[in-house]
């Protein structure tokens, strides 16, 4: 076997964004012997006390991005809302930015993303290139909907900037025409969903791929924010394999490098449809920290740094719940009933280190491991009812 030698620190990793995803990547990177630099507008962002250097600046500022790229061996994203055009220029000059900003360009505009899926033959929901925000009156919107022969319910999606429930609005009746999203958007058909699932996978520059078991996602009633994740998903083996196959072919088509999350719908007719693509580590993969041989965060670092991909074997079933800021509270976070987590067998508490809480802001998560998935779900439901993030 050929031997190799690596001078410490092995590489300098640059993260665009310093939120909780960056923090969890930084924890793995520091454990593995890498140097970490991050760019974020907030000097007290979650990654700030972990990285070797924090560049405080806008994720769209060219000077700040240039500084990050020049100081890093490889740059990656913690959040995809950044200056894609400038990153493409740097990528074309030979700077190592992964995944490619050309992939980011496809994914950041959800209409372009949908059209990419459709034109390349991937299963997804039907779309209409109709921007209801262009019409100021509900009567105008009603007229144009009738012209397109669109039936209720249907979904309006913002083309850019939407995440954690933002930028998605389901119009159930004509009365909802007064409440549309006031930004550039398009229309998707409403899908009769039996399950929402996600497939995480990693691909390296040599085309090697490792796939995690599909997970089941349950969303909060008040918005499109992940409330509970169940892994492995409670779906049949044939659907699991079909979902994995779709995800693999999509990331191969994109020529992606790193971890990708492919969110999907399983319809009432057992169709598997792609909903959205995330070109980064993702909320639907947090359970991998405790339940898999290789976490999504370590896997992403391996993929973008040209190290062998790790095993995605899940050794224990897992349930993950997000901890969101409670409604009516803003300020320094206070965690209620933290002792309940530590007294629950198989429960792991993660706090992101955000200095201020706000309603429905992601503040942390809890993962529960149990050989019996239904027992893990019951533990998660109990902890969800007890652990609350309020403010001082």
Fold blueprint:
Layout lengths: L11 E5 L3 H13 L2 E6 L12 E4 L5 H10 L2 E4 L6 H9 L8 H8 L1 H10 L7 E2 L9 H11 L5 E5 L9 E4 L13 E5 L3 E11 L5 E3 L3 E5 L6 E6 L5 H18 L3 E10 L4 E7 L9 H4 L4 H9 L13 E7 L8 E4 L1 H5 L4 E5 L10 E8 L3 H14 L1 E4 L1
Parallel strand pairs: 1-2, 1-4, 2-3
Antiparallel strand pairs: 5-8, 6-7, 6-8, 9-10, 9-11, 9-13, 11-12, 12-15, 13-14, 15-18, 16-19, 17-18
Q: What is the CA-based Rg, rounded?
A: 21 Å
Q: Helix segment count? A: 11
| Beta-strand proportion | 25-35%
Give the low-pLDDT segments.
Answer: none
Given helix and strand content, the structural type is alpha+beta
CATH superfamily label of the largest domain: ATP-grasp fold, B domain
**How can the largest sheet be summarized?**
9 strands, antiparallel
Q: Kindly state the mean pLDDT as a whole number?
A: 96
Gross CATH architecture of the largest domain: 2-Layer Sandwich
Predict the CATH topology of the largest domain. Answer: D-amino Acid Aminotransferase, Chain A, domain 1
Straight-line N-to-C gap: 58 Å
Multimerization state: single chain
State the name of the first-level CATH class of the largest domain. Answer: Alpha Beta
Write down the domain tally: 3
Number of strands: 19
Helix/strand order: EHEEHEHHHEHEEEEEEEHEEHHEEHEEHE
- The percentage helix is 25-40%
Silhouette? globular
């Amino acid at each position: 076997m050929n031997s190799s030698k690596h001078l410490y620190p092995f590489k300098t990793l640059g993260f665009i964004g310093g939120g909780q995803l960056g923090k969890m990547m930084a924890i793995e990177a520091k454990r593995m012997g890498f140097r970490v630099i991050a760019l974020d507008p907030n000097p007290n962002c979650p990654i700030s006390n972990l990285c070797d250097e924090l560049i405080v600046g806008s994720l769209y500022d060219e000077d700040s991005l240039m500084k990050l790229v020049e100081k890093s061996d490889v740059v990656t994203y913690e959040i995809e809302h950044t200056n894609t055009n400038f990153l493409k220029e740097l990528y074309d000059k030979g700077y190592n930015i992964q995944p490619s900003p050309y992939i980011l360009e496809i994914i950041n505009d959800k209409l372009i993303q949908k059209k990419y899926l459709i034109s390349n033959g991937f299963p997804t929901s039907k779309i209409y290139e109709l921007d209801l925000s262009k019409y100021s009156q509900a009567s105008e919107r009603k007229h144009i909907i009738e012209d397109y022969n669109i039936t209720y319910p249907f979904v309006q999606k913002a083309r850019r900037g939407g995440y954690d429930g933002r930028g998605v609005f389901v119009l159930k009746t004509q009365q909802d025409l007064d409440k549309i999203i006031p930004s550039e958007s398009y229309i998707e058909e409403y899908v009769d969903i039996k399950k929402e699932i996600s497939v995480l996978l990693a691909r390296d520059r040599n085309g090697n791929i490792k796939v995690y078991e599909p997970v089941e996602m349950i969303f909060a009633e008040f918005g499109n924010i992940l409330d509970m994740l169940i892994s492995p998903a409670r779906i049949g083996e044939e659907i699991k394999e079909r979902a994995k196959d779709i995800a693999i072919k999509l990331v191969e088509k994109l020529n992606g490098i790193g971890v990708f999350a492919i969110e999907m719908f399983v319809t009432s007719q057992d169709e598997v449809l792609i909903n959205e693509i995330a070109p980064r580590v993702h909320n639907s993969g947090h359970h991998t920290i405790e339940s898999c041989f290789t976490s999504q965060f370590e896997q992403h670092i391996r993929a973008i740094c040209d190290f062998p991909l790790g095993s995605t074997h899940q050794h224990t079933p897992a349930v993950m719940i997000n901890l969101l800021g409670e409604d009516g509270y803003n300020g320094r976070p206070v965690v209620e009933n933290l002792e309940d987590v530590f007294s629950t067998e198989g429960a792991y508490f993660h706090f992101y280190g955000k200095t201020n809480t706000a309603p429905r802001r992601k503040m942390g998560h809890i993962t529960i491991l149990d050989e019996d998935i239904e027992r893990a779900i019951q533990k998660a439901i109990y902890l969800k009812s007890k652990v609350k993030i309020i403010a001082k």
